[in-house]
Amino acid sequence: MELQAVLMAAGGGSRMPDLTYNTPKPMLPVGNKPLMWYPLNLLERVGFEEVIVITTKEVHKMMSTDPKMKDVKMKLDVVCIQEDGDMGTADALRHIQQKIKTDVLVVSCDLITDVALHEVVDLFRAHNATLAMLMSKAHEFTDTVPGQKGKKKTAEQRDFVGVDQSGKRLLFMANEADLEDGLSIRKSIMRKHPRMHIKTGLEDAHLYCLKKAVVDFLADNKSISSIRGELVPYLVRKQFSKTTNSPKIKDDAEDQNQKTIDGSTNHGQDEPLLQLAQERSCWNDHRGDMSEAYHGGKLRCYVHIIDQGLCYRVNTLAAYIEANRLAPKLFEEPAVHPSAVISERCQMGSDSIIGALCQVADKTSIKRSTIGNSTTVKEKVKVTNSIIMHGVTIEEGCNIQGCVICSNAVIGRGADLKYCLVGSGQQIEPEESSATRLSSLIE
Amino acid sequence: MADSGVTDGLCDTDDIERSKTEGKELTKEEKQRLRKEKKHQKKIKEKKDDAASHEDEKKKKKKKEEKPVGAASQPPTQPSQKVAPAPAPVPVPASETPALADKPAKSKADLKAERRARQESERASKQGKKGDVGQPVPTSKPKAPPSELQPVVKRLPEHVQVDNPDVLKKLAKKLERQQIPLRSDYGYKVSLFSHLHQYSRKAPLTQQLGIPSTVIHPAIVRLGLQYSQGIVAGSNARSVALLHAFKQVIRDYTTPPNEELSRDLVNKLKPYISFLNQCRPLSASMGNAIKYIKKEISNIPSQCKEEEAKSKLLSCIECYINEKIILAAKAIAKYSIEKISDGDVILVYGCSSLVNHILCEAFEKKRKFRVIVVDSRPRLEGREALRRLVQRGISCTYVLISAVSYILPEVSKVFLGAHALLANGYVMSRVGTSQIALVAKAFNVPVLVCCETYKFCERVQTDSFVSNELDDPDELIVTRKGKTQLEHWQEVPSLGLLNLVYDVTPPDFVDLVITDLGMIPCTSVPVVLRVKNVDQ
């Protein structure tokens, strides 16, 4: 067996609390499919037959009832963890260490992408890498997000990513928050890779190929709790650390850790043969200095950066809205679900989606919107640029523009909502106008 | 004069008799023909009822019947037997009586001829149904139609018949059966090399494989990727990596129930070998290593337990690598060091692991020499050789192949590595090697080729066209000062990019081949092969 897939679906969605306080993030509907369906579909398309899903009990319950999840033909091995516990992604991996028999492919549940996964895995295979990850050019979300006054400033911390000349080898990774004075790069890196490209406009897709030795290393090191936040920068740093250190206790511990990562290839007893093959091969990954391929380093981290194509992480409201708009383009599915009842005098734009068992009455206009399952839309309603989740009732004469309406809400007659976010199960009174509450959050 | 007259006279009588007999034969022949035509017309009527295959047979028969009437070298049917002894003086009446007697006999003869012809045609059609490449034609005649004349040839390997759609179809079917994706050719191929595969590095075979590869062992997938991306390059490195991957395959192998390890394991290896072949055509050294492994596997006795068999195979592989690669390199280094004297200027081409090893060993034995490394695009492997030699402390010069005739007056010896040594003494090596050997010959500089015996191959080749490897043509594109001139080469209809990998050097340019068996001339390669085969 080559790779085992692990889907991390226990995240809280802390950056979009308005959407997730009722529905857990993995089950948020995007294009009328639960969010976690997208990475599962990606894995299925590529050829995986089994996935280990780490999630909470609540999500597990919702998964079993959701019809779309039944479409997933892979065997899902669901591991439930405590929802309140502060379990990071690395902690979750440590939790399932017994199940991991080979190298792992860790995917986050909020990744929607159409990347050719073999590009990442090929880097992992060909260079016998310890870590291979996927990054994409960050997207600027230009649409106005409901519930926010004015343009949101990018208060998000930037990531500084350093790659070598080929653009594949990962040399440096740090978050702006960790850099107090400035960016400092070790001399050993500069000596080995004199040309480094440092990029800031990249977004991590949270898709990692990790060697089994790394999972074993995590089991020994309980201090690492997040893959992205701690493990990846640690591995990137360790590529260039010297193996012989001054005899301090801390360094010894680190040395041992390094040895466990370095020394355990799949079959340690064939190491001399691999070494012989590499010696006899006339290939080098760099030129200009006297060292052999990979500078003799055993620990290697690679990154595949995509600049074209779809790659979104749905962890903010803006991303959620954008994903809803673009996700349906990934699949060739009919825009209107066959079980929906739509009257003939409804004007529906071509980029709208209507879910199952919907009822759309006459003289409605639906443009650039997503309407969830079992929603009722009465007459003379105008829905533009909005996302309407499941079970919503929209009474007559409403005008909804740029809104996100969560499940089971009721919008009263004649309401006029612009750029609002209506929480789950809320009721909007008739003749309510968002003008009275400028782009507000209705809860 | 008299003699000639006598002979003339004799000749005259001969001629007369000959003409008489021939005349009679002609008449005989005419009669035969008439009879045959009648029969043929009857048969045609019958044929119209029968299927077309019968027609073919009858046609063949007819032709076979006509043939004895025609040329001299004929199958021994009755009429020709009559023709052959006819030039000998035959008494006229004797010939008449046989002629008379022959008339009823000839009908028998005709029947026999027909029967024989029918048998032969049936035999031929049976062999045709077997679908073999060649039909052994026992009566191979230049007059016979070309469809019947398919001489027995050894099957051409698939990888040099890419422009034949039937061969491609067969390959596609075979790969489908083994569940391996077919890699499609890329770009315009120069017409002289259109019979070879040309793949793109940017379209790896793993695109079409599922990611947790279940059909193919992950070690083999990794190996295939490393081959196609050039991470493992050089025939020694490729063989060692291949054997390493096979070791992992054997370790992870479990015999399915009701199967024998000796047969099943070989069948398991076949799709892996096809996969590796698709990633990059196998080298001669890899081919020999695979033959060795397959032989070892099939020689495992059936009583052997699985664990024991596996450990035996693993030790065989280690033994092979140790003997044929590591120890052979040591032996070759020992022989070569005798040939390197102090003050030598040695020219090497590209990056041959063996030649580098030799030079490093010679340097350790305190020989004083300097090295000139010749390099060529697009691979620029010489840079890696340069790095390895300079790292040891050997003083080197670096030139491109275009400067080789400039630098050769300084050179005292040329050491070349080989990818394979062919059975007719030709050396197959990186493209450019034959150029170096040619120029060295012109300058009277001795050329020494270093090659282990496991790279000796039974193929015979005299030119670099028939069997070669085409690398990705995009590798030839270079960007200088931000400009890529050949970026849109595919859009220019009259432009083709050719990136050859190998070429063959004739034995006249090679002065000595240094192998682990000793120093032999190039023409002794078939002897070594024969000895090797006898040993095995």
Overview of the structural elements:
The complex is a heterodimer of chains A (443) and B (536). By secondary structure, chain A is of the alpha/beta class. In chain A, 24% of the residues lie in helices and 25% in strands. Chain A contains 12 helices and 31 strands. In chain A, β2 and β3 form a beta hairpin. The longest helix of chain A is centred in the middle third of the chain and has 15 residues, at 249-263. Chain A starts with a strand and ends with a strand. Chain B has a 7-stranded mixed sheet with strand order 3-2-1-4-7-11-12, with helices on both faces. The longest helix of chain B is centred in the first third of the chain and has 48 residues, at 2-49. The termini of chain B are far apart. The chains are: A alpha/beta (443), B alpha/beta (536). Chain A binds chain B through residues 1-5, 46-49, 105, 116-118, 121-122, 125-128, 266-267, 270, 273-274, 276-284, 287, 290, and chain B through 204, 206-207, 209-214, 218-219, 221-222, 225-226, 229-234, 236-238, 240-241, 243-244, 247-248, 251, 321, 326, 350-351, 353, 381, 383-385, 387, 390-391. Chain A: Residues 5-137 form the Nucleotidyl transferase domain. Chain A: InterPro entries: eIF2B_gamma (IPR051960), LbH_EIF2B3/5 (IPR056764), NTP_transferase_dom (IPR005835), Nucleotide-diphossugar_trans (IPR029044). Chain A: One of its GO terms (biological process) is cytoplasmic translational initiation.
